[in-house]
Each structure stands twice: as C-alpha cells, then as structure tokens.
User: Fold this.
Amino acid sequence: MDNLNEEFEEEHNQRMSWWREARFGMFIHWGLYSLPAGVWKGKNIPGIGEWIMYNAKIPAKEYEQLAKNFNPIKFNARKWVKVAKDAGMKYIVITAKHHDGFCMFDSEYTDYNIVKATPFKKDPLKELAEACKEEGIRLGFYYSQTIDWHHPNGMGNEWDYDVRKKDFTEYIREYVKPQLKELLTNYGQVAVIWFDIFTPTPELARELKEWVRSISPSTIISGRINPPLIHHGLYIRGFGDYIELGDNQIPETKIEDDWETPATLNDTWGYKSYDHNWKSPGRVIQLLVDITSKGGNYLLNVGPTAEGEIPEPSKKILEEVGRWMKVNGESIYGTQASPINVTQDMPYRITKKDRKLYLHVFGWPHYGELNVLGLKEDQKVTKAYFLVDKKELNFKRTDSSLILSIPEKPLDPIDTVIVLETA
Ligand code: JFZ
Assistant:
C-alpha cells in the first residue's frame, strides 16, 4: 500500500477504534412526527411513523403547525442516557433533522426548529450532549442531507413544490453544510454524522465528506452518504467510514469491513401509538450476537413520544438486554467476526477477541454434547469454560470439530456463552 493510503488507513483505524469496541448503540427517532404518532385526521396512516408527512401527502404549511403543539415536558436527557447505558449501549445517534425538515436543534439557518418554533423553547440535543458526556456515552447526529419535505430546494416533496424549480446544489451549499457546521461545533465532540438516503451525486457526497472532515476529522461518517455499493456480491465502503446495511438487514455471512445494521424494536422508527409489534428481549440479544459474530455493529432504535418519553415496552426490552449484557458483555465489546464459518442454520454463533473464541449457544443440545464444526486442523483449543462462572468443560477434538461435554440444561436459555481459549 502506498504511503498516502497507509496514512488514510491509519487515520481510519484511529477514527473507528471506539466504534469497533462499542458494537452496540441506541438510535433515536424523535421529531414532530412523534405527535401524530401514525394518525392523521382520524385515520391510521400506513408505513413508518416518521414518514407520515409523505404517506399522507400533508402540505408543508399544514404539517409545520404541529410545531405549535410540540412540547415534550417529560423529556429528560439523563433518563434517556441511563436507558441506553443500562442496556449496554455505548453510543447514541439521534435525529437532528429527518426528512420532514424540522430541526430538533437550535439553528440560525431556519426558524423551523425546536427552540424557535415550539413552546418547548429548549435545545434537547444540547441537554443530550451534556448527559452523554457525563456518562461516557458517545453522541452522533442523524441528518437527512437529501430528502427534505419542508425546504423548497430539498428533495422528495413533489406535492407542494415544482421539482423543476429546485436547486439542490444550493440546498447542500447554503443550508446543509452550514447546519452540519452548527451540529459539529455547538455540541462538543460529535461521534457520528449519520447521513441517510443518499447524496445524489458522488461529487456532492465527496464535498460533504470533505466538509465534515475539515470541521471534525474524528467524526465518523455513515455509509448512507452514498448509495449502497455492491460489487460482485461484495459490500464496498464508499465515501463513508463504514458500510450501512438496509433497515433491519442482517447479512448471511460476515463482511470483511466495518459495517452496521440499523434496526427497530417494533416496525417503526418514529413513534406510532398503535405499533405494538415488539421484538422479544431474547430476539434482540440473538440479533446483537448474530450481527457481532459477522463483524458488525447493532444500532437499535427507540422512538420517544411527543411528551419526551421512551415507550415503556422499549424500556422493558432494553432492561432485559442490559441484564444479559452485564454478564456477557465481554463476548460482544471489542470482538471481531468469527474466524470459523458458521451458517445461519447452526444453533450457535462465534465472536472472537484476541485468543478467545466466544461460543454463543442459542439452541442447547440435550444429549450432553455440543459439536462445533469447521475448525481448522491447526486451530488449537487449550481450554473451554462457561463465561459466567468460569466452570471448565471437557472436550474432544477431531480434525475439523470440537466436541464439548455439556450439562443437560443451558445456563442461559437465550444464549449460553462458552469461552474457547486457543493457542
Ligand atoms: C431511512 C429513512 O427513510 C427512515 O425513515 C429511517 O430513518 C431509516 C433509518 O433510514 O430508511 C431507509 C434508508 C435506506 C434503506 C432503507 C431504509 N436502504 O438503503 O435499504
């Protein structure tokens, strides 16, 4: 690799080191859309909650009236950060401006923001930044750099505006870039700028990347700064610092680069009053393990209410996940993808850190033996024990498998973690 590339790679590794350690973060979708919560003029509007303005084709002049009633008096940044921290999450990414164009932060480039346009009059991102700093949680901002259904030069609103009259380059240079500078300079060290549905040209994507780098070189840029790039079946990082998969998308096999799955706890990102399709804590834990075993991060969403509260069911699920993480976090944080091929149908997953393999057993065999397949002949296992109590397990080796002697019942019905120490 030539020197320049080596320098970039070294810089990239430094920027990504906390992110590779973290593995698990909280996504927060919170905005004016939390007020209708999936209902408009008495009708349930299909689709994800934060898309209600688009799905109901609400005129911008009508939608913006919501600001007058957005007053999250129950918002408490410390409580939100505690929910994330107790769940074992190490970073938070919150919507600063979603596709509806409403800014959840104070901005001098539009009055269509939470400080100037709502009775709340405060900047929740400022409070969140302070709470995150106190608790050692990193904070990033989701920013919709392309779709903006409120701004006349943003993309996506063809029911209020004439597309032919839009000047998108003007939108990027006179609005998006100045706002990114506000976000990157007014809220302390910003961990991530989470760009979303894709900058329409590589030139503008490069311009945004260089802009962010020029203001805050250590801020990570999400993969959605450009469209997903897949070449001969391989995911390619574009202008972002990592690959962003589709919503709730889990790859079949590991990806040899930094990547993240953004995911919901039910079926919506923004709060919907009637979406009760919650994932179980066990499902969330096994998704976290599956993603980590393939080398990825899990950015799991909560959609707070217009009053400023994280929904009780979300908190209950995350409390349960946190209990598992308290005991087993070592097998997630700072781990890499399994060096052993594990297919989706196998009853276990493997994560790796240094010379330790963490065997996550989802389906417990009830005949006293667990077969771990696909080991290389020269892959020496010197010791096996339960992570939770260090109790050793006997095992036999064949050329390509390890046969562990296991008790009748699992220690944890969701995921019992066995440590395999390797030479
Ligand atoms: C986008 C947003 O439209 C949505 O509201 C939410 O914020 C989500 C996290 O991101 O939705 C997407 C964007 C990209 C893909 C899928 C959904 N994709 O590339 O498959």
In short: The CA atoms of residues 91 and 137 lie 5 Å apart. Residues 48, 50-51, 196-197, 228, 246-247, 262, 269 surround JFZ (CB under 6 Å). The radius of gyration is 23 Å.
